[in-house]
Structures
1.
Amino acid sequence: MKPGSVGRRAGADPDADAPRGEGGELHQQAGGERPQLTTNMGVVIADNQNSLTSTPRGPTLLEDFILREKITHFDHERIPERIVHARGSAAHGFFELTKSLKKYTRARILTEVGERTPVFTRISTVAGGSGSVDTPRDVRGFAVKFYTKEGNWDLVGNNIPVFFIQDAMKFPDIVHAVKMEPDRGYPQASAAHDTFWDFISLTPESMHKIMWAMSDRAIPRSLRFIEGFGIHSFRLVNEEGKSTFVKFHWRPKLGVQSTLWDEAMKLQAADNDFHRRDLFESIQAGNFPEWELGVQLFTEEEADAFPFDHLDPTKIIPESLVPLQMVGRMVLDRWPDNFFAETEQVAYCPANVVPGIDFSNDPLLQGRLFSYLDTQLIRLGGPNFHQIPINQPKCPFANHQRDGHMQMQVHKGRVNYEPSSLQDDSPRADMKAGYRSFAEQPDDGVKGRVRPESFADHYSQARMFFRSLEAPEQAHVASALVFELSKVETPKVRERMVGHLINIDQSLAQRVADGLGLDALPPAQKAAMAPIDMPAAPEVRIIGRMRETLKGRAVGILIDEGSDAAALKALVKAAQSAGATVKIVAPKLGGAVLSDGKKQPADGQLQGTPSVVFDAVAVLLSEAAGKKLAKDSAAVDFVAFAWAHLKAIAHDAGAAPLLKAGNVGKDAGIVDAGDTQAYIKAASTRQWAREPKVRNLA
Ligand code: HDE
């Protein structure tokens, strides 16, 4: 078009059948189904493709209120991400009580068997930013908002039952230490760097948590396979005002399952959203993630007899001391409609409790009671964030708090104070139904900044944890320590850490020292209190408690032109009946023509669907395809990594050259594709016995 000429602008034809956006139903086109596109003021927009310019090739006019409104809103689309737990995924669901705790609490959610309470549960990593990967070695946040009839109760926990520090005063320090280093801006979502280990090696109270964080607990297979823990002791308070201490636990119905470290690292490249996708897809498929709620209940007198202080959040209460009772279940059955409105804007707070649930004096919990509300004020922009739909209680709520940024309620009447006599419907406190704090008798200490003597044992439970693990799990802890400390550039930090390990377990220290290539063991770190030997706690293991099942797991079957149609059908049927999700992988997404002449579409293209995303694989190939794929690195990696990651592999004769190229050996997990029964058995677990053949662990 010539300069200055008048005519049609480049860009999409506004009259064409192009998407016009979803939203308000106020402006229905006469006779049309689709709503009209409008500005936020409700003015119908005629052209959503072109800015208003002085001439077709001239400058854009400031007058273009439609452009300015659209861009301004876009510029403000992000809110500050959470300083910790920025990366998370969430779902709606319900909680159902199966056993009444009426003897211990007046909280209706824990007394009414069979009553369903809506929940919104967000599971997160801690260290990475909101766009970081799902599978780093990290603790997982496990936050549940119960919308009870008596107000919102938030149980904001982790997938590991202890924490790094004993006092809230240290939280900003540990978070600064683990996040990317401030001068260089890396590493993202990883504890494997100097500042983290510098802090940890100077903080002996963190040793128990470090054992958990270096274990396979910190590299979960999916969010459906993790446990959850409230960590702190809380109180249950009954109608008579009597208090019982409680620890909350979530147990996944599918059991606990983790990845291997090598697998987790490869997953970071294969699928950034591995856990989010799994949660989304399982809910879409109707395989609703489910957890049981367990409680450990104990009295003050019982607590006094424990060989540790239960107010110290670096300690668990072994189940041999206080058994776990299952009292309810949580099912997540609905993905959020909008990620930002719900998952991003949800505001959890451990101070959100209901009558009958109260706090303990755990100094970490006490600090948290302040922090969460405070952080929402900056993150969500003001004091009315409780009015955002995801944060609103589902029971009535009314008080005299007024105005403020983004006030959504239109309060009526003259009375916004209490006491008052001008308005009969003005809300009043209710002594009987209302929240009453437990009348605790303070102990006779003096005011001061003092760490209790009873918090001084930093190593006994770390030792108990390590010694309770099965041999492969112990090897993973040792190897994880070697991996992490090998990323630490400062020798004295590495040595200081090994000095702590000596206090935990001499053999562990030796293995890590060997793995790091230290010439000799450094001196042990001075312990504030000599560790004691505690009985083994089998509940901390994963091996043995992992369910042998294909439920919640995925099987990937690699096919190509001419693959055996009958064998494929039989394998798919067997895996699906055992509860697995089955995906077909092929060199082309369009699939391949099978031996019966029919085309089988693929769910994933080989290059982009490596075996790390599956729990077990199968390879069904014609003789020609087997030879061809033996020269294809993606196919070779597919089988080589399945072997290295201790997965079951079913194969037919045609796949033999590919297995050979991938150096796949022989064991109980390498199964003839015709023997579906043997394959399902092998696929329902990991081949732990194979590990020494494929990896030199510390
Ligand atoms: Fe948190 N933590 N935390 N934390 N935490 C936050 O609150 C804090 C701690 C946990 O999915 C923040 O809304 C302090 C222990 C979860 O939105 C912040 C201390 C446990 C989530 C905060 C702790 C947790 C958070 C950041 C030490 C396990 C994510 C954003 C005293 C029992 C919730 C936000 C979600 C989030 C503070 C320690 C769990 C800054 C000061 C221990 C699951 O307020």
Note: The chain has a mean pLDDT of 95.
2.
Amino acid sequence: MTQMTLRQHLMAQATDTDLMILIEDIATACRMISDEVRHGAFAGNLGGAGTQNVQGEAQKALDVISDQIFQAQVGGNPRLAALVSEEVDEVNWRKEAPQAGDFVVYYDPLDGSSNLDVNLSVGTIFSIVRLGQAIETTDSAVQIKGTEQIAAGYAIYGPSTGLVITTGQGVDGFTHHPGNGAFLLTQPAMSIPAETQEFAINASRYDLWDAPVRRYVDDCLRGADGPRGKKFNMRWCASMVADVHRILTRGGVFLYPKDSGNAGQGGKLRLMYEANPMGMLVEAAGGASSTGTGRILDVAPTGHHQRVSVILGSKDEVAVIEEYHLK
Ligand code: AHG
Ligand code: MN
Ligand code: MN
């Protein structure tokens, strides 16, 4: 069986050369992060770094290492205007005078890092925007809506290392072949079924949820005899990459809503390097992404570490959850 490499696939899609090289730089960073994760126990890197990031969250040693690898591998790309990382407070400007055609890359270097010490899947999430004009190097210049993304994706570090990307033409999944050294196309044209009987939410936050989310989950749990008329299955990986990978593979919905415990900060998940890239991928695979009251990609950012309510996955189920919010 012939399996295209990532480069062959991007060439076949007639991807712009600058974008292709940037995606390959990101793929290189992800291969190196995968290697660090795999060797984490030998190097004693699975635990805490003893530091906090800008969001006040305790950093794992591998959060910091992954960010450094990403900066080193992607930061030297000559078309890069700026990097925006979960682990770095300030925008990391790479040019003094960014021009039209330059890129801004938003990324979560290691997603789901609470899973590291229990050896469950983690990943790296990224989003790419191309500047339409020259900009000043101010924070507000990188506060660009999700609809402006030209590419997005994630790497997943599980039993195998995968890379899932969209450049706006569908969603394709690749698996890293350690002998070959490349990512090979193993899941072409990933698509999310419109209907599902599987939801993913951290149910320990039940007491904190708003009424629409509680009503939705209550109704799902009532099974075939309840208002939804079907029995639901439940999954929660505590790793958005792993949950979204399952949804892109077999459908389902993922919810991390704003609740009374996280409302002060606007929710849990970050708009620019978690919700927007996953929203773009899910939509490109035929699914939907919503805050509960509107499309995630339409949210106008007011900060590069801004948080947002996230509901995404199978299109019809996301529509049902939006109806619970309207009621
Ligand atoms: P990160 O490790 O980058 O901080 O992200 C963790 C996120 C996301 O991956 C996951 O869906 C969610 O946080 C898990 O939250 P809970 O621990 O509340 O389940
Ligand atoms: Mn994350
Ligand atoms: Mn992270």
Note: The mean pLDDT is 97.
